[in-house]
Amino acid sequence: MLIILNSELTQDSPELSHTLKFLAQLPNVSVKLHEVKGAEQTLTEVYLIGNTQALDCDEIAALPGVEQVIRISDEYRILGRHQYERRTTGFEYNGIRFDQSNLHVFAGLCAVDTPEHVETMMKALKAQGQQCTRMGAYKPRTSPYAFQGHGKQCLPYVFELAGKYDIKVVAMEITHESHIDEIREALHQTGHPTGVMLQVGTRNTQNFELLKAIGRQKEFPVLLKRGFGITLNESLNAAEYLASEGNANVIFCLRGMKTGAGSPHRNMVDFAHVPVVKRLTRMPVCIDPSHSVGSRDKGPDGILDIQHATAQGVIAGANMVLVDFHPAPAKALVDGPQALLLDELPRFLEDIQLCHELYQKRVKLYQTSGLHQA
Ligand code: PEP
Ligand code: MN
Asked: Are 322 and 253 in contact (CB under 8 A)?
């Protein structure tokens, strides 16, 4: 059971202590507080865990300071959508709002290679009014002999260049909890010129100790990739691990599933699950067309499969696009063959905008048709 407290209630108010005292004496039920930091205020949610079937919702709703009582299913307690709930979706980070209705593009390098390439990329993004990017510093690779990223050594110049070109959020995969400290330290050293969204890669979706470590910190939001060979339920539970440790600022990323049936694409594109994740949870949903499709092949219409897949995800309501670009793909150290080119950026962004507007029109169409499926 979830209890949402009145937003005006302060930590030291007598109403709060009265209500918490009442809840604490309920038999076979434990009480867990979860703070939700918004732009203007911090909300407190109270979770009752255990035998809550016997509890009377009306009695709890009548306690002082209680705004709403929601019976929640056992799954995705914090990130899930539950019946009759009014909790909002998403969060704000470094001045940018991420939720289930807006859309941000994170175009950038799969792997940081040289400061020159990072700068060329950031400059191109700024010219297009973009405030987010992707920059891989820690790369999980299939072969132990392959380039595994420049790691902490590249962080200072990546962050400084992001600041120089007004980039507010850099999505960056980490593969070990020590990388959180390295990122924090580099941001501190460079005077916090930008923000970082920690990315959990598909190979680590069920690395529970890594999830717990990332969930324990609340400074950085998290982009969690769907596991490529597990069920959607298992991946959504992985997201809930982050939230249960305290960090509910999570975006869920679809990146294709590993199966021969996806061939000739690198993975089986799974963007039909955009509305599914939005229905089951309150997380914003990201699509990664680069790692799903994995090539620059194009259709007879001259449009790249990556561009088509992006359009399919955005038209279905995606809230974020994570996509590989490179100024000189032939020189890229990771995933060059799937990178889009810088001169493709303006049209790609325009295409995404068209699809997002079309998605909004589709929502209106079904809402006003009188056939709206409640
Ligand atoms: C990436 O985004 O760089 C990446 C390695 O993706 P994934 O974990 O989805 O393979
Ligand atoms: Mn890659």
From this structure: yes
